[in-house]
Write a structure and sequence with these properties.
Layout lengths: L8 E10 L2 E11 L4 E5 L6 H8 L7 E6 L2 E3 L3 H5 L2 E4 L11 H11 L4 H14 L15 H13 L5 E5 L7 H16 L3 E5 L3 H7 L2 E6 L2 E7 H4 L6 H9 L13
Parallel strand pairs: 3-8, 3-9, 6-7, 7-8
Antiparallel strand pairs: 1-2, 1-4, 4-5, 9-10
């Protein structure tokens, strides 16, 4: 009898407290495998904190996390080898070339030297960075850094991607390229957990979304389930998070 695999992510009553402030306050969420999932919220809502805990970079104060059928952080080594990460601040090594960094990522994930080098070259070409192959990352634009970070996340063919603002600072051509690559990964069975403030991108890419505010889940579901009438995702976001009740007053001098 065929047994369905466990969800890609299972989060139960997750809390993270800094001092007296709860950055995350009882978050529960399930992300099924093969899903392109948008994780949204205003600044300071707890999105990056959630991703840091999922990666084992910040221990939870309480609650449970299961990733690809493994308990985190107890089984973090089994989990990390199956995840691709693009952090918000793209922590790259400025004194390596893009190709060297991607190859380094492959080696860290256990790929052999030859295979890492081959895949790094192929990924540079795929992300249209081969023309900058000898340039140090410190000389890259923010958009180029995001492309390198995503290329490095792809090199070991992970099952789950944790992407924190991957399109920030990326131009339209680069964003289109990255979106096509990510959609192809989902088509081949990968799961993507994405945070982004670019709601138009989320609306085009994601099959399900969750919106959090002040560390708590506000709504979760498919866009069809959550939107009312002709609402855009932006309309939904403002409605559930709480936008201004009326248009702001204009200034005489502005």
């Amino acid at each position: 009898m065929h047994v369905n695999p466990e969800p890609a992510l299972e989060i139960r009553d997750l809390r993270k407290v800094y001092g007296e402030k709860a950055a995350l306050d009882g978050l529960s969420l399930t992300v099924e495998r093969g899903c392109f999932f948008g994780f949204l919220g205003p600044n300071g809502a707890g999105k990056t904190t959630t991703i840091k805990m999922l990666m084992g970079l910040a221990p939870p104060t309480s609650g449970e996390m299961r990733i690809l059928g493994h308990d985190m952080p107890a089984e973090h080594l089994a989990v990390k080898s199956r995840i691709g990460l693009v952090p918000d601040d793209t922590l790259l090594f400025d004194h390596l070339t893009g190709g060297e960094f991607i190859e380094f990522a492959g080696r860290m994930y256990g790929l052999g030297r030859k295979l890492s080098g081959q895949r790094a070259s192929e990924l540079l070409a795929l992300f249209e960075l081969d023309g900058a192959g000898r340039k140090m990352i410190g000389e890259y634009s923010k958009g180029m850094r995001k492309r390198v970070a995503l290329a490095a996340a792809l090199i070991h063919r992970p099952e789950l991607y944790l992407l924190d603002e991957p399109f920030e600072g990326v131009d339209a051509v680069g964003a289109r390229l990255m979106k096509d690559i990510l959609l192809d990964q989902v088509a081949h069975g990968a799961t993507i957990f994405l945070t982004s403030h670019v709601l138009e991108v989320v609306e085009r890419l994601c099959s399900r979304v969750a919106i959090i505010n002040e560390g708590r889940l506000v709504v979760e579901g498919s866009l069809e389930e959550l939107r009312s009438g002709q609402e855009t995702l932006e309309d939904l976001f403002v409605r559930v998070v709480g936008g201004p009740a009326h248009a702001p007053e204009s200034l005489d001098w502005l």
